[in-house]
Amino acid sequence: MIDDSTPLWPWFEGLSQIPRPSKHETEAKNWIRECLATHPVEIEEDGAGNLLLRKPAHPDATNAPGIILQSHLDMVPQKRDDVQHDFTRDPIRLEREGDWLRARGTTLGADNGIGVAAILAVMSDARMRHGPLEALLTVDEEAGMSGASGADTEWFQGRLLLNLDTEEENELYIGCAGGVDVVITSGLPVIPADRAGWKVTVSGLKGGHSGIDIHKPRANAIRLLARALLRLDDALGDLCIESFEGGTLRNAIARSASAAVTFRDNTSPSHILQVLEDTTQALLTDEPDLHWSVESVMPGRLTPADVTRPWLHALLDCPHGVLAWSEHFEGVVHTSANLGVVRWQPGHVQVDCLPRSLDDAARDDAADRIRDIFGRLDAQVCLEKPYPGWVPRPDSPLLTRARQVHEQVMGIAPGIQVIHAGLECGILGQRAAHWDMISFGPTITGAHSPDERVNIPSVRRFWQYLTALLDALAR
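^ that's the sequence the OP posted. Answer follows.
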């Protein structure tokens, strides 16, 4: 599939054949144990389900400092609406387009499969020069970082950690955002339906990663549909909702949403579509494949109009997008929020949001704003799985050495960045404060969406830099 001699590609292709959405990493772990069984690699599994690997130093580097390589095993399961794919059973179907590798209608899993593949390639190479080497392959990163939170950090003897989970080559990352899951639930009154209704759907949006893509001009399907339904209510009156389904993950920007609704006045699909198109015209976004559809339905139980409208307003008022920019890193988002998932069925609704920030206090303030908005509707609002940001250390000795090696090997000085996403370095740094850490990776675009792809030449250069850095640290 990939006509490139970089040693990590066979590992990535093998990993892509194994379904591994969050909380379904067991088969991947078993495959790794089997593949490394003939290599001098010690493998353990900690109480959180992470794999811990240890490989002796090269004979010429036994006195070198210990290195920890770190990546996560799981991937985000997202697919196009017209694609049939079961992420718990089906392999990822790889496709090459010039210098890019992508999947057929689904997420690729380069986030963070490329990092995992690189670690396995290093662990299986008997000739590579490196010091004492360890690896932490975590589970459940994309669904709450429980693997990092429960990792047995005392097992590791090394103190220099290379995280391989960032997505822009020639950049070294030294900090990241923290986050917290905000889960809103509420019971809803219901009334029997006494008229025919309509299913309104918006699809074809770009979506993307709720951290690194949150500043881009992309529509959120949940908010777009809520706004359109309020406009339809203004035009037709007495809007009642049977169901409203939007988004799939709290850390992905919602790509599609649909609602089954009724109105007081009779109307036609063409009239509804005209209101929907008028709503789209007001968007200041780049969504060339946005598509509305309308079909007739016969609903059963409805949320009454006097409850429906306040909930739609709450979805529109819910913080989403960039809330503040960093004062210290140009072009870096400081605080954001993502309205990720809505599951509204007769009698019950749940909304999942994810605020992020480089500052834990600002993260919590964004969560409180969400709590206040939905609290006015007497909803129950729970804050779950908070994780800290990774505080930058510009004076890090590891960073200094990594910059020198980058200039020597790549011929250019690397950028020093902070990422508006939740790297596991934040949690690990809190639990093992003595670790010195940096993060880097190849160029990956469209993470957390079916547009995810990885640049093949950048993977070659990423591998070249990783092995050169291990060699330099071994000296």
